[in-house]
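Worked Example 4.2. Consider the chain below.
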Amino acid sequence: MTRRQHRTGTGGTGGKARRAHGHGPSRRRQTAVAAAALAMAVPLTFSSAGDAGAAADHPIVFARYTAAASIEDLYAISSSGGTPVKLTHTSTVSDVMPTWSPDGKRVAFVRYGSGGAIDGIWTMKSTGGDLKVVPGTKGASDPAWSPDGERIAYAKPVGTQREIYVADIDGTPATRLTHNTADDLHPTWSPSGKYLAFNRSDAAGNSRVMRVRLSTLAQTAVTAPGSHDWTPDWSHANRIAFSRVDSSGFARLYVIRPDGTGLHRITSARRNDKNPSWSPDGSRLVFTRGGTDDADPEHLYLVKADGTGLTQLTKTASHDMQADWRP
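Applying the procedure from the previous section yields the following structure tokens:
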């Protein structure tokens, strides 16, 4: 997966650009990435704005870069608004694809090192420091922490394709779950921890949401063949949200039940909506909107599961991506 591909949240084959799911012009970032450097983080503190309540106590972590500073760092923001807090300060490496541990004490993320190569998956305290690499994850992406906090799922290259793996948080033993000629990406755990959903991208540019049972490795399609479905996220309320490039040519958010029934669209703007992440209670989603071209900022938005209550969360001239709502 290239540096451009991780920014779409698709990671698919065929050199997809950072722009949403291949839509709109793109250019490769030319920043030279030097030797890896240790991240320095600051404590998570948030200024409250807007409504109070349980959701405001669950911050959102995300990756950000700007035209002036094209190295990605991780930030966090209260779901009720306020000023984002910068968590990593790296001048020569990029930190992306953050995901909370179930207890909110640590964040797993992907680090890009020398020359743009993926160093692998790392974890750190949510308050900063205590960085640890997950052994055996060099080249891996799309980390997802299991509901019990014991394991981590991720996508890793096997030849020219990427397959889904699960390992204990110390990296062992790593178990390969998928074996096929397509790209399997962006795993997300069921609330029970018995299943993973992920998106499967084929050479024709199609991508559909799949489900695999960990105990048997039996796989079931959740969305239809010929779809363009990316970055699923499985809620505690047992619904799967994902981003679909539909007949409009734009990426919109959709929700479906794990058995493939009950499909409905959440957003319908003529913008690109991607990388949805559920709130802890399953009532709202955070997602990235924007990216019609490289000059177009990408901001975080919140929306209720029924499509109402749309709120813009970040507003600076930046690219804010891959948000994850703390459980």
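The chain is about 0% helix and 40% strand. The first strand starts at residue 60 and ends at 65. Compare this with Example 4.1 before moving on.
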